[in-house]
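pasting input
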Amino acid sequence: MNTEPPTPARDATVAPAGTPAAPLLQVADLSVTFSTDAGPITAVRSLSYQVQPGEVLGIVGESGSGKTVSSLAVMALLPPHARVSGSVRFQGREILGQSDKDLSAIRGRRIAMIFQDPLSALTPVYTVGDQIEEAILVHADRGGGGRTAARARAIELLALVGIPNPRQRAAAFPHEFSGGMRQRAMIAMAIANNPDLIIADEPTTALDVTIQAQILEVLRTAQQATGAAIILITHDLGVVAGFADRVAVMYAGKLVEAGAVDDLFYRARMPYTLGLLGSIPRLDIGRRQPLTPIEGNPPSLVNLPLGCPFVPRCPMRVEKCIEVEPDLLPLAASGQAHAAACHRSDEIERLNMTSVDVFPAPARPAASGVRVPREKRGSLLDVRDLVKEYPLIKGAVMRRRIGTVHAVDGISFDIRESETLGLVGESGCGKTTAIIEILNLVKPMSGTIVVLGKDTAAMTPEERFAIRRDLQVVFQDPMASLDPRLPVGDILAEPMHAHGVPATDRGNRVRELLQLVGLQPEHANRYPQAFSGGQRQRIGIARALALQPRVLVLDEPVSALDVSIRAGVINLLEHLRAALGLSYLFVAHDLSVVRHIADRVAVMYLGRLVEIGDIDEVFDHPAHPYTQALLSAIPLPDPQKERRRRRIVLQGDLPSPADPPSGCRFRTRCQKFAHELDERMRQRCIDEAPALIDRTGSQDRLDACHYATPSSVL
Amino acid sequence: MARFLLRRLVYLVLLVIVSTSVAYLLAATQLHPRSRYEGRNPPPPPEVVDAALDAVNMNDKTPVTVRFGRWVEGLLHADLGLTIENQPVNDEIGRRMWVSLRLLLIGSIAGSLLGVAAGAYGAVKQYRPADHVLTIFSFVTLSIPTVVLAVLFKNAGIGLNNVLGFTGNTKLLYTTGEITPGLAIWSWEGLINRLAHLVLPSLVLTVIAIAFYGRYQRNAMLDVLGSDFLRTAQAKGLRRTRALVTHGLRTALIPMATFFAYEFALLFVGATFTEKIFGWHGMGEYFVDAVTKSDVNSVAGVTLFVAVLVLIAGFLSDVAYAALDPRVRVS
């Protein structure tokens, strides 16, 4: 390597400073183009980076940034119609252009890959054990122990990644595993041959946070066991902060910034990186933090214009940016280790600019209602002991009930005027069932729902119809919740039509609504497919606002959106709440978003509330062990904090709501139950279901744990 | 699982009873066995005709309910009644079903295997010349009526015989019947002769099966080709071809299970046109002839036989599906 001429500036590969060792992986000038009907799409554009043995490189980018395509190119696993150019050298050998035979000797043995969706990534018709075995056998030398040895090794690997009863579980099919277990099996398969490099493509995106924490832990174990280098591809800056040694940021198929993890998080020098960092809500800061959204959308990769692809969204653009695309160049002060692709990065460095300096943060609206004490504000929605059970039916012909799913099992909360309640919990905890019950506006199976002072059990159909005006909903998936065959104007006018708003007023209101959510009135004639995800969600919000409701139920309104788009929608929701005096029931699994937007938070676990109270109190001093674990599981986009944090990793998966544990439902996974309580104390958890108890005397802060001890986990 | 299957069985048996009853009643009311005798010259005396029709339980002067009752009573003793020519339907079916099986077995197996292979190959080579050739072949074959296809093959066979000089009694390919009369069935010569009779009809059946299964298998395979698990298999280090076969094709076979289950249960039912044109006296020919001869009992008997086979096919398809797809194996 030493005899090679110095790399030209154009190929400034991002290498950690002072590492004379040969890189494990050297990607140089890698480009990937797909032909489409609309023209060639260059998904990856002259990408260059290096990975040293044993290090963790995080590649961060939003959807469509080319991060997955580039990693598939490294494995030479792209579909045949992809045109790949450049060079990928692994352990000094060129990968591109190798025969399938030679590649298959490297894949799985030297380079292993972990995919995003652990269900579709495992072959449904073979047992998990067989699939791991196959990974071992395909690389085994002839006579190297054969099937028996491979089986033993597969079971050993399953044990290593933390699958209980590995011998039995090896005989299970993928569909018999939970999402977290499947991803563990995937990791077991990846480390089966002690690879030198593991490429993990969004390994935790499809999983809940507590399971994500488990999987990251397993990945760490796997790295220790194999000593492999890891390329961790993700959109989640938090995951990268705690896991990676170096980080590379991709935008529109190119690396725009790369460097050591601290450099990138604390000294970002490219406006896009700064924008990303500024647009993620922080779990540990909350409302004090201004969110700086990046305006606009990522560019289409068909016929990219000449200049920097970030230009349309960049507040720092100058003439040169439109004409010349900047190369990824080492920064003057930081040397080779930290590079950015921006004409003005030296200026950003000199002035030490942060997100707030580059992206003007919108003024935070002060909600007028906040100043009035909570107990003096009227209650808009009051839910008491709400229960929803589903019968578990078996048999197609002779249907019979074999059990009951306790989806929601006695939850109580209220929402006052100008207040946002965040309802949080992992998938399967019953939060969606709860809001559907509320939106149905009918008498619940048990308990009461009072909306704007009216009990749903006693409502006449007319009252129910009238009250729907005041209680509107925004759904999670902005693609699925808008009729693709209606122009946006009709979508917005439809609720007004249903509630008898005169046709003459509707047109004006539609224009007003579009402006209110930050779209142009001319957009009324377009169809939903003409809009991006963020814009569609704005249309969904506008539709919910059409009848001037008082309460909005927001079901995961930003979870389907990319990070840079998300901030804009969050800011919009905050602005609307203040301007229109709305109250929100904000359902989410992302606690950082909830912390940013909510006044109060209710935490659900397996159909019950485990803790409810003021957002800052609950997040800063969580009392229930589940709240503590949940908060602890969420990675912070702050490498130094991440390194100091000690994570509570919950054991196992969510129990089935058809067969919840006796007593406290959380006890089977509870870290306190497992490590802190003695036998007598545990018995109480097993026998007695804890009620929501008020410990402060304010009636506004309750938790449901026999042995609650508030402590800070952030 | 056993209870579930039992319940299914009850339903299917009900279905068989209903369909067979309807078939019998339709045949008994719409077919006119009497016209067989009335057309004769000189016409036989009515008493003779009545006696002949009574003997086979097809006299239209007997109320249809009574005839149906007799037929059902016979069924309870596993007796399908007599054909219009006074032969037991049981014997007729018992003989002809094996003829159909002998005709169909080779063509069906070859057609299914080649169809799966062609479909999978076409999917892997999507939009390449090989795929286009297979697609055109399938559509052309499927759009030609079986009669025409069978006649084409028959004529081609005759042409080949002539070109190669097989104009005597011994031919390279035979176009009529199962075996040349007079040959010992189990002799070496007899077997070769049988095969020479089988080539052309088997080819017809194979070509049709390839066209049919090829299309379905191609679609099933295309669904699997973009899947993540196929990528995982290659990421593990499997060669592309091996990954395509052991992970891709294995999974893409699942939706084909239903087709194959029906195909193999219905081997006994025969192939009407192929049998007719190549002169095999199988079940397909039997059914068509029975209708033209106004043979009520034969029509009803064949319908019952087919219904039972469909029932078995339904079971086979469930079993095959469960065998191929662990996701549907429910405790």
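fyi The radius of gyration of chain A is 27 Å.
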